[in-house]
Amino acid sequence: MSNRKLIFFDIDGTLYNSDKVVPAEAKKAVRQLKEDGHIVAIATGRGPFMYKKLREELGIETYISYNGQYIVFEGQVIYDNPIESSTLEKLSAQAHSNNHPVAFCDEKDLRVSTKEHEHVKAGIGSLKLDFEVSEDKAYFEDNAIYQSLLFCTEEEEAEYTASYDDVYFLRWHEFCMDVIPAGGSKAEGIKTLMDKMNIDIKDAYAFGDGPNDVEMLELIENSVAMGNGVQEAKAVSRYVTGHVDENGLYDGLKIAGLL
């Protein structure tokens, strides 16, 4: 169809409400978008194994994981960008010496250095994952790691953020930061995917709420920030919709003219 659109959704706080479920109206809306011939995609900081059921539930086969580091188009991996193992070795040693846990994430699993640490329980717990997280301090040695998690408070982070050139740190929880390859973002992932799909950026839409959505919402003209989103996300978006818990996603699709 000539007016076929590509619509990117963040997960947490956008597709998922506060209870980490997709509201019925949002689910119905996604189904409608697909029936209308549009392409529905996910752009998230999560790893693919963390939202497999969600993809199956919504019938989504195109997604950007780990803030752009692992991209799948119609079920096929088209881009992956792991962190250098020497960087992970340095980070692991530094964190260990400060009693700060680290998690290592590849496309199929997440392993954490110290499972019983309070910061891990709080940070990982907030994701409401549907599987038990395993412990493995050396997981990075034999696996391609696309994102690491560093568990420390904001007051403790400066030592890390000043120490690395090839990764950057993005806080998403009081006790946890994503560690991502430098230059990587959802926005860069979207550019890679759109090149592959040969779709004009004017035909793309993006919905998000968090700090890791800001570049994506800035890149895409037809951008919608959730009412529950951070101020930075709202500031760069074309539209601002209601709270995710109050059918904000469904309303945002209507505001953007997609429904």
TrEMBL record:
A Pfam family this protein belongs to? Hydrolase_3
- Residue ranges of coiled coil: none
**Which is one GO molecular function term here?**
phosphatase activity
Entry's InterPro entries? Cof, HAD-like_sf, HAD-SF_hydro_IIB, HAD_sf
Q: Which domain of life is it from?
A: Bacteria
Q: Name one GO cellular component term.
A: cytosol
Name-wise, this protein is Cof subfamily protein (Haloacid dehalogenase superfamily)/HAD superfamily hydrolase (TIGR01484 family)
